[in-house]
Amino acid sequence: EPEVTQTPSHQVTQMGQEVILRCVPISNHLYFYWYRQILGQKVEFLVSFYNNEISEKSEIFDDQFSVERPDGSNFTLKIRSTKLEDSAMYFCASSENWAGDQPQHFGDGTRLSIL
Amino acid sequence: GDSVTQMEGPVTLSEEAFLTINCTYTATGYPSLFWYVQYPGEGLQLLLKATKADDKGSNKGFEATYRKETTSFHLEKGSVQVSDSAVYFCALSDRNRGFKTIFGAGTRLFVKA
Questions:
Q1: In terms of C-beta density within 10 A (0-12 exposed, 13-18 middle, 19 or more buried), how is residue B79 classed?
Q2: What is the pLDDT of residue B28?
Q3: CA A57 – CA B108 distance, rounded (Å)
Q4: Do A105 and B46 touch (CB under 8 A)?
Q5: In B7-106, which ranges are E strands?
Q6: Angle at B68 between CA B93 and CA B26, to 5 degrees
Q7: Which of its termini does chain B have fewer beta carbons within 10 Å around, N or C?
Q8: Spatial contact of A74 and A24, defined as CB atoms under 8 Å apart
Q9: Mutate which of B3, B6, B35, B44 to disrupt the A interface (most A C-beta within 10 Å)?
Q10: Do A56 and B100 touch (CB under 8 A)?
Q11: What are the chain A neighbours of B32 within 8 Å (beta carbons)?
C-alpha cells in the first residue's frame, strides 16, 4: 500500500537555526498537510496545500513557517528561525480529495528537537 | 469553532475485556468522523471512518457509530488484545470548514496480558 514518507525521522537543531522537514506524499494525492504534536498533547493542524498554494493555515503557522512543493514529489516545511517551543513531532499528510470525504494518510513523523 | 472531546486516559484493561472510548464533537456543519490510532513510535493510521449520521465504521474488530442526535462517535471493541495498546484519536473534518482535520486530545490504551 502506498505510504507517505518523511525524512529525517529525528532532527536536532540549535535554536535560531533554520530547519527543513521533508515529505513525499502519496503520488496520486492532490492535497497536502502539515500537523504537529507537542509531546503528550493533541495533534494540531498547521497548514494545508493544494494546487501549489496554501489553502488554509492555523494561527500557529506564522511568518517563521513556510511550505513548498519544489518538484512533483516532495512537500517541505521550513521553519526559518527555530524556537524552543517548536520542539514537537511534525506529521505530513496527504489526501486524494479534500479532507471532508477522504481520510488523510499520515507519515511516521519527524521528531524535531530544538536545543 | 469545531472541536472534538474524548475521554481522558490512560485506560488500562486486561486482555479480552470490552473497550469503550467516548468521543463527542461540536460542529456547525455535517462533518465526517474518524478514529486514528498511533502505535508507539509510529505515525497516525486511520482506523475507521463514518461520513454521515447513523453510519457505522468498522475495522479490525473496532467499531463506532455516527450519532448525530448525541453528537457522539464512541469507539468500541468487544475483546481487546495486548497488540491494541496505543493512543486513539477521535477526529472530524467538515467540508464547509476548510481542508483540515481536527483531532481530540487522544486516549492512551494499555492492555495487560
A1: exposed
A2: 83
A3: 28
A4: yes
A5: 11-14, 19-21, 23-26, 32-38, 44-50, 56-59, 62-65, 75-77, 86-93, 102-103
A6: 50
A7: C
A8: yes
A9: B44
A10: yes
A11: 99-101
Q: Looking at residue B87, what is its pLDDT? A: 94
pLDDT of A1-50, one tens digit each? 678 999 999 999 999 999 999 999 999 898 999 999 998 888 999 999 99
Q: How far is A56 from chain B (nearest CA, A)?
A: 7
> C-alpha grid cell for residue A68?
513548498
Residue ranges of chain B with pLDDT lower than 50? none
- pLDDT of A101 > 90? The answer is no
Q: Given strand A5-7, what is the order of strands in its sheet?
A: A5-7, A19-24, A75-79, A65-68
Return mean pLDDT, chain A: 91
Who contacts A101 (Cβ-Cβ below 8 Å, separation ≥6)? Answer: B32, B51, B95
Q: Are A16 and A85 in contact (CB under 8 A)?
A: no
Q: Cis peptide before A25, with omega less than 30 degrees from 0?
A: no
B52: part of which helix (H) or strand (E)? none
The cell numbers describing A40, all together, are 503528550
Q: CB–CB of B99 and A31 under 8 A? A: yes
For residue A103, the 8-state DSSP code is P
